[in-house]
Design goal:
The complex is a heterodimer of chains A (about 260) and B (about 180). Helix content of chain A is about 35%, strand content about 25%. Chain A contains six helices and ten strands; from the N terminus they run E-E-H-H-H-H-E-E-E-E-E-E-H-E-E-H. In chain A, strands 1-2-3-4-7-8-9-10 form an eight-stranded antiparallel sheet. Chain A has a two-stranded antiparallel sheet with strand order 5-6. In chain A, helix 1 packs antiparallel against helix 4 and helix 4 (about 95-110) packs across helix 5. Residues about 165-170 and about 245-258 of chain A have low confidence and may be disordered. By secondary structure, chain B is α+β, with helices and mostly antiparallel strands. Chain B is built from nine helices and seven strands. Chain B has helices at about 1-20, 20-40, 40-45, 50-60, 70, 75-80, 150, 170-175, 175-184; strands spanning about 80-85, 95-100, 105, 110-115, 120-130, 145, 160-165. In chain B, strands 1, 2, 3, 4 and 5 form a five-stranded antiparallel sheet that branches. In chain B, strand 3 (about 105) and strand 4 form a beta hairpin. Classes of the chains: A alpha+beta (about 260), B alpha+beta (about 180). At the A-B interface, strand 1, strand 2, strand 5, strand 6 and strand 7 of A face helix 3, strand 6, helix 7, strand 7 and helix 8 of B.
Chain lengths: ~260, ~180
């Protein structure tokens, strides 16, 4: 069954082999719970209370402190290209919270069904062992695909980040003068790694792209400001694989569009 | 973990100072690959500095008495599973050719041979650098230019889901995933 709903300030899609409304509701509840705690656009969220100075981080809930710790660890791993703080100093954990919530949703799905594919705000996560055929949106025309990829076995997540002119949520490093990439797509074995590194590449530019591809086991596709593309060897292979496999898999017949 | 890494880095620095930059490099190359093979990508990554840190980490665990710069020089012999020369005690390396053990990495198997002459490394050769099918490979995960025509191979209808930087519901509504959801 295929489902779609609004959550976490964005949209979610769930495609799974089981027809189980109760399971879908539990997945939605996991995401809603994270949204209630971490959203800055909700005045009553725990993170908003921290931003307003009504609550100290040290007094915050365990999930909040864990998310903060995770974000700080990733800040170190990415040479500060990824940071959980906005330039105005407000703690913004959205860079890590969505991916963490998706991981929690994955646990729920894994316990209940074999094949599933979850998309939240353009980030995708699927069941271990699956090799879905995925589209990546063209940043210059959202009604078109930029690429079609089929990540290698072992990959479970695909995250994409975009930059500035699209009203972005990514804070660039002060030593990076202008955006180098308008979009970065990262395939990894887990969604947090994929999400954080996609964000880091947009924020840190060329230098971060090079270090990320050198240090992490990920496949990367970037779109430069004048539209030029770059891909790692693994991403090239994923593109080649998508070309070879034509079977669409979970989409029901009759859904073909031109 | 952090203190070990710092201690490791310090010891690695001594190694470099004590037995020469090249020896340090060779030792790092051998051991860094084993570190990569043993751990997952995330923990192996820290920085290039920490890979030399983990170099000496593994030395430390293998010979826990190594605290001085002299004994950390033995990191060169850590990698040698077979050698045609004799290992010297503390000052530099004995002349000879040393073959590092074959280390499995995500890029394939890596094995390095080091030739030492006059206490200096005179040659480092990669004996084995192959992928899992036995072909030789380049150890690089760099993102290289690729043509647009190369990456697009399907219409949206033949993909299972669409990824992309989506910020708001409004942006989503014009996106392909929305179209896919409506189609299904």
């Amino acid at each position: 069954m295929n489902l779609h709903w609004s959550t976490m300030g964005t949209e979610a899609s769930l495609s799974m082999d089981a027809a189980d409304d109760e399971l879908a509701a539990r997945v939605a509840a996991v995401l809603a719970r994270a949204d209630a705690r971490f959203s800055l656009y909700r005045d009553d969220s725990e993170l908003s209370r921290i931003a307003h100075g009504e609550l100290d981080l040290v007094d915050a809930s365990v999930p909040m402190r864990e998310a903060y710790e995770r974000a700080i660890t990733w800040r170190s791993l990415t040479g500060h290209a990824f940071t959980p703080h906005r330039p105005d100093g407000v703690l913004d954990l959205s860079g890590i919270v969505k991916a963490t919530a998706m991981e929690d949703a994955a646990d729920v799905l894994d316990d209940a069904t074999g094949e599933w594919l979850l998309g939240v705000g353009g980030d995708l996560l699927w069941a271990a062992g699956m090799r879905p055929r995925l589209g990546v949106v063209d940043p210059t025309d959202r009604d078109r695909l930029l690429a079609t990829i089929r990540p290698s076995a072992g990959r479970r997540a695909l995250a994409t980040s975009g930059s500035a002119e699209r009203g972005d949520h990514i804070w660039r490093r002060h030593d990076v003068p202008a955006p180098v990439f308008t979009q970065a797509t990262v395939a990894a074995d887990d969604i947090v790694t994929a999400d954080v590194l996609a964000t880091a590449i947009i924020a840190g530019g060329e230098a971060t792209l090079d270090s990320v591809t050198e240090w992490f086991d990920v496949d990367v596709l970037t779109v430069g400001c004048s539209g030029e593309l770059r891909a790692t060897p693994g991403m090239r292979a994923a593109v080649a694989d998508a070309r070879d496999v034509q079977a669409p898999g979970m989409l029901p017949p009759g859904s073909a569009r031109t | 973990m952090r203190t070990r890494a710092i201690l490791g880095s310090a010891l690695a620095a001594f190694t470099v100072l004590g037995v020469g930059y090249e020896v340090g490099q060779a030792a790092t190359a051998v051991d860094a690959t084993s570190a990569t093979g043993a751990t997952d990508a995330t923990s192996a990554t820290g920085s290039s500095g920490s890979s030399s840190g983990s170099t000496t980490n593994s030395d430390q665990t293998s010979s826990s008495s190594s605290g001085s710069s002299g004994s950390s020089g033995s990191s060169g012999s850590t990698g040698s599973s077979s050698s045609t020369g004799t290992t010297s005690s503390s000052s530099g390396y004995a002349d000879g050719t040393y073959t590092g053990s074959s280390v499995s990495t995500r890029f394939g198997n890596v094995q390095v041979q080091v030739t030492i002459s006059g206490g200096q490394i005179t040659d480092v050769a990669a004996l084995q650098l192959t992928d899992h099918d036995g072909r030789s490979v380049q150890i690089s995960n760099r993102a290289a230019p690729i043509l647009r025509e190369e990456v697009l191979s399907a219409q949206s209808a033949s993909v299972q889901m669409v990824g992309g930087a989506t910020y708001t519901s409004q942006a989503y509504l014009s996106s392909l995933q929305s179209a896919l959801d409506q189609a299904s």
